[in-house]
Amino acid sequence: MQLLLDYIPIIAFILAYFYRDIFLATIVLMAVMPVILLIQWLMTKKVNRIYAASTALVLVLGAFTVAFRNPTFLYWKPTVLNWAIALVFLGSQWIGENTIVQRMLGSAAELTDTQWIRLNQTWVVFFIFVGAVNLYVAYSFSEEFWVKFKLFGMLGITLIFVIIQSIWLTITARNNEATQGDSEA
Q1: I need a surface site. Which of 9, 41, 46, 57 has the fewest CB within 10 A?
Q2: How far apart are CA 83 and CA 172, in angstroms?
Q3: How many domains does the chain have?
Q4: Centroid of chain to Cα 116
Q5: Could you read off the pLDDT of 113-142 as tens digits, one per residue?
């Protein structure tokens, strides 16, 4: 259900874009995202911080996009969000007991502190990379290509990253278990 809710704004944006243009799509996105945020809160009594930040960015940058009839503001939204997330992940190495990645995946594997930091830094690089690729696509290709890339390209890059990360996590956790088993014997 959560995954469906997360994709409703994207689907609405794409449909409005191909129905008319980027400006209608932006208005639709600005209308749908707060509604989905409210629905998520009503269902879980929790606010997804990343989704809330994304909604705030859409409202601010979307308002500039519509007011100035300039889609460049909206083009920057994925980059600003990804780079902000990168900063938060990076900051988590010094704030709190565990990195954000360790908080998210700590129950999935036992890693050393150094490995958790390395994995966290990999996420930082990933978010910086995705933000940079978004800008490259936005400024190097057509608006229609950017809209399609935002849906399919970013999703594809994220899936590839998650698969690679999962493989690394599994191999590293197994190696750690084997090493720990050897030291106990």
Answers
A1: 46
A2: 27
A3: 2
A4: 19
A5: 999 999 999 999 999 999 999 999 999 999
DSSP state of 149: I
Please give the model's pTM, rounded to 2 decimal places.
Answer: 0.91
Spatial separation of the C-alpha atoms in residues 21 and 10, rounded to whole Å: 14
Same-domain pairing of 65 and 76: no
**Residues 163, 43: Cα–Cα separation, whole Å:** 30
Residue 184 pLDDT more than 70?
A: no
Cα 91 from Cα 83, distance rounded (Å): 12
pLDDT at 177: 83
Q: Is residue 11's pLDDT more than 60?
A: yes
State the burial class of residue 150 (Cβ atoms within 10 Å of its Cβ: 0-12, 13-18, 19+). buried
Rg (CA), the chain: 19
> 86, 127 in Cβ contact below 8 A?
yes
